[in-house]
Design goal:
The structure holds two protein chains of two kinds.
Chain A (H helix, E strand, L loop, with lengths): L2 E4 L1 H8 L6 H11 L2 E5 L5 E4 L10 H12 L10 E10 L9 E8 L5 H16 L8 E7 L6 E2 L8 E8 L17 H7 L1 H10 L5 E5 L4 E4 L3 E2 L12 E7 L2 H17 L3 E8 L4 E4 L5 E6 H8 L5 H10 L3 E7 L1 E8 L9 H12 L19 H15 L3 E2 L5 E2 L1 H4 L29 E2 L10 E2 L4 H10 L7 E12 L7 E12 L5 H14 L4 E2 L8 E11 L2 E9 L1 H6 L6 E7 L5
Parallel strand pairs in A: 4-8, 4-13, 18-22
Antiparallel strand pairs in A: 1-3, 2-3, 5-12, 5-13, 6-12, 7-8, 8-9, 9-10, 10-11, 13-14, 15-17, 16-17, 19-21, 20-21, 22-23, 23-27, 24-25, 25-26, 26-27
Helix pairs in contact in A: 1-3, 4-7, 5-6, 8-10, 9-10
Chain B lengths: L1 E3 H9 L6 E2 H8 L3 H13 L3 E13 L1 H9 L2 H11 L7 E2 H8 L5 H11 L3 E4 L2 E4 L13 H10 L8 H9 L3 E13 L1 H9 L2 E6 L4 H6 L5 E3 L18 H15 L3 E2 L5 E3 H6 L16 E2 L10 H13 L14 H5 L1 E3 L4 H8 L11 E10 L11 E11 L4 H13 L7 E5 L4 E10 L6 E10 L1 H7 L4 E8 H9 L14 H6 L5
Parallel strand pairs in B: 1-8, 8-9, 10-14
Antiparallel strand pairs in B: 2-7, 3-7, 4-6, 5-6, 11-13, 12-13, 14-15, 15-19, 16-17, 17-18, 18-19
The chains are: A alpha+beta, B alpha+beta.
């Protein structure tokens, strides 16, 4: 979840509530859903919140929400904007992978250190969230006075323009931020720390995105800006550009930045975006419209409202609403352009609920009757588990994920290859030896696949507990799976029943005795014809055949397996499919 | 009369005219003093003997005292060696005498200081001279401390002078402890019984089938066991503590009218994420959060549903609904993952895929494993059990959701549940549920809940309300029983002792 660092003094100043001490602010913030996580070294409050209200990624946005909460502001606020003086011309050479751009000018700012910090934080937080680490949207903020506009052509003729274009990786040089050398975009990716971080974003691009003014290249989105237009506290007028893979996303990111700078006393000036086939007027600060039924609000919240009350609550949430009675009572709701989380009228109902105070709602038990019950699979599993526990087994719970080493090699099996396009397992393969379901990008080398049988897990528990009292009779019922492209998911899952008897005199007979008892209480027919299995001692291994189907294996674990697991006593064990007991 | 063997022997050995201590009787009968004491009490209970108890002081030699009893006190050994070396006439060097007296280590200092204290002679400039002129009581041949050592060893400490005993205790050669001495006197009834004759009952160790079938059991006495001693613990088998907790949760849910769901652990992202209206570029859909499997795409997804879900993602649902401005491809939807939540099962059930179309009202649950690519620590595992539940009805409100969960958590002793408004891509409104930790008193998150969005339910063909919630079973276990490290019980790193001794869940 996003965390935003907020200066409490700034918050007091921007809300106009000097009387609130830090504790009072924290309480008010918690009510908004911003949880206090701690303080930075500089005494900023670290606030964590759910990633829906991305307009709260800076102190300005948090202050705006607080003012609505305090009742200082009501309804939708739209900043006034000046007419466009600048144009961004989008050229045909712009990389296909990153076709969209947007922008705005903000004039008359008086940014102090805190204001500049806040802007930089907002930029970073938007990159991390909506911008999907700059892949979907990247922000560049420039000192407008350092830009030299070319004379715009076409529809915007007569005004100043910059160009969004595409260039060869080494087609131009500029001095990027935090550098004192002229580098080509290609060199930035290999020689500059920021370049290295974001190189992956443009690695597959034939041409690199680039923004030019009349002087030359000044920005290499989404990687880095040039030093020429770097913003400082002395900067009064800013040019903000954003590029990305989705117009709506960068437009909304731009709106959030414009609202923040408006709160800092800046004056937003629109910018024309000249695509070859159309011109956009940005920022787009028009409201979105949702129609919400009165009945839906009442039924979702479980509360009766007067229409006036609903309108009041919506305005306290920073929305505008008009009640319309046309057979049914509905509300035409206007949603401000910094909101990115309102997709459906339902989201407006949520705002009503928050403004009303969810914790003021009285819980009630829904008056509908249903008949409950357990699934057949879990009933059988439970019955088998109870039977095993009654036979003296300690019920174990192991991870379903394991490694090839544990699942195959340490048990004396060869690791089968699973990387064929179509995998059909050998029906005669020994239990556990079927091909693995592997994890694409494993977290650690201990968890690289789903176990194909459970006996290795139990053997590992024995290995871990050699200092504990014997006998150790362990059993587990759980998932095992192997790769099978005959299955819809490509994964053949089954519940498996495994048991081991570890004691100084453990023998095949002991294991068979337990298995017989288990089969008897489930009224199934057991036979154990001899077989071979690399994990077990030859001549002391049998297939488990239940009601005519071969479903598992039983035997004495091979000394090779025991020694591999540092076990100094014999172990007899069995494993078979749970559904054989049905 | 028929009495056990020990009691008969005790009666015969006891006297009506004089008392005998239990200890002396035990020596006389060659029996264990505890057994004799027990027998005496049995007889006293029937009035055949009288048992008197008084406290006495027992004096025992320490190991060092016992050694000196045999080898002689160091100062006496020094005295004899000095006499032999002619030290009565002229001083002999200590070095010469130490070897002759067989003194070793600290014994040298002990010998010298006590030699001087007892007035056996003088020690000057490393030489010893014997001079018994200290007084008439100085007699190395009849040393009271040496005599006391012998007397204690013979059990005659009672006759010793207190100051000598004090001295031996100071020297660490003897120790005194309070003991209870019991003495036994035969009563008149005891005498009568003896005169009438008493049969000895046989004492047996184990009850055998032969004893039972022959009827001999009626004529035997069973040897006493030490019933207070610890036996070797027999652990038997137990259901895993987490399974017990799951059973408890299932009991509660079935009692509240919920039916159990079942479905695949490896499933298409479609069921795990897309149906839940999670945009395909959502940060939680990267491999950092979920386990993608190295297998080809899912073979089949229901075409109509795929189209409806794609439309919800792209266009939204309803007249003025908006979609996401994120890419959406069926290829991504068909990728197979280990499920990160069992909400994938809820999607399968709600869609009608699993058990056919469902009409309201419905209540369903599952308590099954899910897989998250998270950091392993005491409270997080790569796989854990998720409790998943949902309720379908014509009209549900936030109040119904609150009522249901209040009811559920009360069954686990959590009565102060709080609802914090939250955001999930798949529910609106959404709430995090908080409750007080029984041990620490802190407010901790105990679940996540909400009412499914229309973008979720619309494509699934559900035309009424569905509310849902989820939480980790492990968290509930830790809250209920104060477990601190979940790795002790779940997984192959588990400690069998911990499992064998974990408190039962009920």
């Amino acid at each position: 979840m996003p965390v935003v660092d907020v200066d409490p003094d700034e918050l007091r100043r921007l809300t106009g509530h000097d009387e609130k001490d830090d504790e009072a602010l924290k309480e008010d913030l918690f009510a908004l859903g911003l949880e206090f996580e701690g303080e930075t070294e500089d005494g900023l409050l670290q606030l964590e919140f759910a990633p829906d209200r991305l307009d709260r990624l800076s102190v300005e946005g948090v202050a705006r929400s607080l003012r609505y909460q305090y009742g200082d502001d009501r309804g939708v606020y739209i900043p006034d904007t000046n007419d466009a003086d600048w144009t961004i011309e989008v050229e045909g050479s712009v990389p296909d992978e990153r076709p969209y751009v947007t922008g705005a000018v903000v004039r008359g700012l008086d940014l102090d250190e805190a204001g500049l910090e806040s802007l930089i934080q907002l930029q970073e937080k938007l990159h991390a969230t909506m911008g999907r680490k700059r892949a979907k949207g990247a922000i560049g903020v420039h000192d407008l006075t350092m830009l030299k506009g070319a004379s715009a052509t076409g529809a915007s003729g007569g005004r100043k323009s910059i160009r969004y274009t595409g260039i060869e990786p080494d087609g131009e040089t500029f001095v990027p931020l935090d550098s004192d050398r002229e580098l080509t975009p290609g060199e930035v990716l290999t020689d500059h720390p920021t370049g290295e971080t974001y190189a992956g974003l443009v690695a597959d691009y034939e041409r690199y995105p680039a923004i030019y003014d009349d002087v030359g290249l000044f920005s290499f989105p989404p990687v880095i800006n040039g030093t020429r237009t770097e913003v400082e506290t002395a900067s009064r007028d800013l040019f903000i550009e954003m590029t990305g893979t989705d117009q709506w996303t960068i437009d909304r990111m731009l709106n959030i930045v414009c609202y923040a700078l408006d709160a800092r006393g800046g004056r937003v000036e629109r910018v024309d975006i000249d695509y070859p086939d159309r011109t956009l007027d940005r920022p787009d600060l028009s409201t979105d419209r949702k129609t919400v039924g009165h009945d839906r609000i009442e039924s979702l919240l479980g509360v009766s409202f007067d229409p006036g009350e609903v309108v009041d609550l919506l305005e306290r949430a920073g929305l505008d609403a008009v009640a319309e009675e046309d057979g049914t009572l509905t509300y035409e709701v206007a949603v401000p352009p910094y909101r990115v989380d309102v997709l459906h009228p339902l989201d407006v109902v949520d705002d009503v609920g928050r403004a009303y105070g969810f914790n003021d709602l009285e819980p009630r038990y829904p008056d509908v009757g249903t008949i409950g019950g357990r699934h057949e699979r879990s009933r059988i599993e439970d019955a088998a588990r109870d039977a095993l526990v009654g036979l003296g087994f300690e019920d174990m719970l192991n991870f379903h994920m394991t490694s090839e080493a544990e699942n195959y090699e340490r048990m004396g099996l060869d690791t089968p290859s699973a990387h064929d396009d179509e995998v059909t397992p050998d029906p005669d393969a020994p239990l556990g030896a079927r091909p693995p379901v592997t994890i694409t990008e494993p977290y650690s080398e201990d968890y690289t696949m789903v176990r194909s049988w459970a006996l290795p897990s139990l053997t590992m528990v024995l290995e871990r507990n050699t200092h504990r009292a014997y006998p150790q009779d362990l059993a587990e019922i759980g998932l095992a799976a192997h790769r099978d492209d005959g299955a819809n998911t490509r994964v053949a899952e089954r519940r498996t029943v495994a048991g081991v008897l570890a004691r100084t005199d453990a023998s095949y007979e002991d294991a068979k005795g337990k298995l017989q008892a288990l089969c008897r209480v489930f009224d199934v027919d057991l036979s154990t014809p001899p077989t071979d299995h690399p994990s077990f001692i030859d001549g002391r291994t049998a297939s488990i055949v239940i009601d005519g189907d071969e479903v598992g294996v039983i035997g004495e674990l091979h000394p090779r397996v025991l020694v591999e697991h540092d076990l100094e006593l014999p172990v007899a064990g069995f494993e078979f499919r749970l559904d054989a007991l049905r | 009369m028929r009495r056990p063997e020990t009691e008969v022997a005790l009666l015969e050995a006891a006297s009506a005219t004089g008392t005998k201590t239990v200890e002396s009787l035990a020596t006389e009968l060659d029996a264990d003093p505890t057994a004799v004491t027990n027998a005496a009490f049995e007889l006293a209970a029937d009035g055949l003997v009288e048992v008197e108890a008084y406290s006495a002081e027992a004096v025992d030699l320490t190991d060092e005292g016992d050694r000196y009893r045999e080898a002689g006190l160091p100062e006496l050994r020094l005295y004899r060696a000095a006499v032999d070396a002619g030290a009565e006439d002229e001083a002999v060097s200590i070095g010469e005498l130490v070897g002759a007296a067989g003194l070793e280590g600290p014994e040298v200092d002990i010998a010298l200081s006590n030699f001087a204290r007892k007035g056996f002679g003088d020690i000057e400039e490393g030489a010893v001279r014997v001079d018994l002129a200290g007084g008439p009581d100085v007699d190395p041949e009849d040393d009271p401390e040496a005599g006391a050592l012998a007397a204690i060893a013979d059990g005659n400490a009672g006759y010793l002078d207190g100051t000598v005993l004090d001295r031996l205790e100071d020297r660490g050669l003897a120790s005194r402890t309070e003991t209870t001495v019991r003495s036994v006197t035969l009563t008149d009834e005891g005498v009568t019984a003896l005169m009438e004759g008493i049969e000895t009952a046989e004492t047996v160790g184990a009850l055998t089938p032969e004893l039972l079938t022959s009827g001999e059991w009626a004529d035997v006495e069973f040897a006493d066991y030490n019933v207070e001693a610890d036996a070797e613990t027999d652990y038997g088998g137990r259901k895993h503590v987490l399974r017990q907790t799951a059973d408890r949760v299932k009991d509660v849910l079935v009692g509240m009218g919920f039916s159990e769901m079942e479905g695949p652990h490896a499933d298409a992202e479609f069921w795990i994420n897309d149906c839940l209206f999670m945009p395909q570029d959502h940060p939680a859909r990267t491999h950092w959060d979920q386990f993608a499997l190295d297998v080809p795409p899912m073979r089949e997804l229901p075409d109509d549903l795929v189209a409806a879900v794609e439309s919800a993602h792209r266009e939204g649902v309803g007249a003025d609904g908006d979609g996401y401005h994120s890419p959406w491809t069926e290829d991504v939807a068909k990728g197979v993952d280990l499920r990160g939540h069992t909400t994938s099962l809820s999607m399968r059930y709600l869609s009608g895929e699993q058990v056919g179309d469902l009409d309201p009202p419905q209540r369903w649950f599952s308590v099954e494993k899910v897989y998250r690519n998270d950091t392993l620590d005491p409270t997080h595992l790569l796989e854990f059990f998720q409790i998943e539940g949902w309720v379908m009805a014509e009209e549900l409100s936030v109040r119904d959701l609150m009522g249901t969960f209040t009811e559920f958590y009360e069954r686990f002793g959590i009565t102060d549940i709080q609802f914090k408004p939250h955001y999930n891509p798949y529910t609106e409104p959404s709430f995090e549920l908080f409750g007080t930790h029984p041990e620490t008193g802190e407010m901790v998150e105990i679940g996540n809940s909400g009412i499914f969005r229309e973008e979720v339910l619309g494509p699934l063909g559900v035309e009424c309300d569905v509310m849902a919630w989820g939480l980790a079973l492990e968290r509930l276990l830790m809250l209920m029983y104060g477990f601190e490290d979940i790795r002790d019980v779940h997984g192959t790193l588990c400690d069998l002792d911990r499992l064998r001794t974990a408190e039962v869940v009920h």
